[in-house]
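Holo model, FNR. Inputs:
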Amino acid sequence: MPDEPMDHMVRAGAFSAEERAAIYRAIETRRDVRDQFLPDPLPDDLVWRLLSAAHHAPSVGFMQPWNFILVRDAERREEVWRAFSRANEEAAGMFSGKRRDDYRALKLEGIRKAPLGICVTCDPTRGGPVVLGRTHNFSMDRYSTVCAIQNLWLAARAEGVGVGWVSIFHEDELKRILAIPEHVEVIGWFCLGYVDTLYGEPELAVKGWRQRLPLEDLVFSETWQERPAV
Ligand SMILES: Cc1cc2c(cc1C)N(C[C@H](O)[C@H](O)[C@H](O)COP(=O)(O)O)c1[nH]c(=O)[nH]c(=O)c1N2
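Output:
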C-alpha cells in the first residue's frame, strides 16, 4: 500500500461554539415524521445534498453497501402504502387489549402524504466475498447502511425536511414493487417532505406509547455490573 503523505491530512480540532450548537440542535430536534409533510416537491439539488450526506457515512471496510431508490410516482407510493397497510393490520394483531386499540390509533407512516419516498437498500455483495471488518459479523453491512440513513436524517432536519422511517412491511412485497434484485436487502422506506412544524418530543412519547429512558439507567462503568459515579 502507498505511504501516507502528510498532504492528505486536514486540520482537525473542535468546531466553533455556533457550529457545535447547530450539530446538537439537529440531533436533538430531529423527529420521525408521519403526518406533518407539506405537498411541495423537494428540489433535486436538495435531495442530492441529502443523498451526499448519506454517502459520506462510515461503512465497514469502506464497503458503501447502500443504494437509494427515489420514488415520487403517486401510484407506486400508493402500492407501497397498500403493502404497509396489510402488514400493519397483522402488526395490530400482535398486541392485545388496550395496547391493540392504542396501536391502531397511531399513525405510523406518511407514504402517500410525503412527496418523496426513498427505499434504502443494502447490497451484501458490494465489497466482494471477504470484507475488511465484516469477517466475524456479517451484519456490519446493515449497520453501515443505518449510519448512512442517520446522516440523511440529520441533514434533512437542517434543511427543514421531515423524514419518517417505515419498517412495517413484508420485505418481499417492497422488493417486488420496486424490482429490487434477490440478493439485495431492504433496510427501510423513508417518507420525505418539507415540514413547518415538528413534535418537540418523540410522537410516541407525546401520545403515551413509550417514554424516553433515563440515560443514567443505560450507562455502565467498566463492566455490565457497575454503575458510573455521576
Ligand atoms: C429502525 C427503525 C424503524 C422504525 C422507526 C425508527 C427506527 C430507528 N420509526 C421511528 C421511531 O418510532 C422513532 O424514531 C421513535 O419513536 C423516536 O422518535 P423520534 O425519531 O425521536 O421522533 C418508525 N416510526 C413509524 O411511525 N413507523 C415505523 O415503521 C418505524 N420504524
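The mean pLDDT is 97. Residues 31-32, 34, 108-109, 165-168, 202, 204 surround FNR (CB under 6 Å).
Archived with the compound record.
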